[in-house]
């Protein structure tokens, strides 16, 4: 219950305060979102498999977001920002898809 | 390929397995009640909710900014169009006023009368005043089914130039396309696939009106280069055209003021 309440509180806080992303951070937002989604689906799969761990989830979530943003930042500085974003999206996308497929198998047994 | 294999085989963070193994070794269950009450998890999920909301709001705001910019540009175009029309109306009104004043001045003497007639005939020739008389109307339209990707089944500026040239050659005394008088300063050109006549964009069908002898004009046009050109493009690309005589046509004045050229005093 507490995690759900936290998620809801985050969404409400975002709506209420109407926070806008600073201009310098905007290129990193899409990558951060994909990295966060990867952590979320990994967490859901761990819950279903009964091995969920709060510390692993939070650390992987924050680290994923920060590392993804950092890789894109590094790529931007080296002039290969868009290529590196594509690489990050592909890797994280594959992980998200595989995790969701496993979740689907656990739920529907198919 | 081992990187990709790894990616497919172990998509789950290995940290979960390790943590679970450690707990099992310590004799605990991997996921306990305590896991769900962990403040770190709650904070992480607050951050997740915040991140997702921010992203959604960001996209919404950007979209509305882009569409409002577009709206602003469209409005600006309409405003400027209206301003151009208003200014052109003003120019026509002032030109009419000038003509009236000239008439008033010249009417008073016989020499003035003669000058006035001369001026009017010159103005009619150059397209500075509206003219009326019998003539023909050549209507040219795009092909009914437009499928060619290179746009050859649409009327091109070249086609209209051929028609106008054909009409002049057939003895036309004044020509206008869709109400734009063709004067010595007129340009028939296309910009971005839109035909512009006197720098005004035009749409199909194009009505080319010409004043001249209604019988010989239509016949000579049909036999001449203009008619041949139209028949050729009609056969090759399906462009439709029609030539009809008209007892009374009125062609508007062309708007062609001279800014730099002045009459040479030494003219014979």
TrEMBL record, chain A:
Superkingdom of source? Bacteria
Q: List, alphabetically, the GO terms of the cellular component aspect.
A: plasma membrane
Q: Which UniProt keywords apply?
A: Cell membrane, Membrane, Transmembrane, Transmembrane helix
The family assignment reads: Belongs to the sbp family.
Stated membrane topology is: Multi-pass membrane protein
What is the protein name stated in its UniProt record?
A: DUF1290 domain-containing protein
Annotated compartments: Cell membrane
One Pfam family from the record? DUF1290
Cross-referenced InterPro entries: DUF1290
Q: Report the source organism.
A: Jiangella aurantiaca
Ranges that cross the membrane: 27-44, 56-74, 80-98
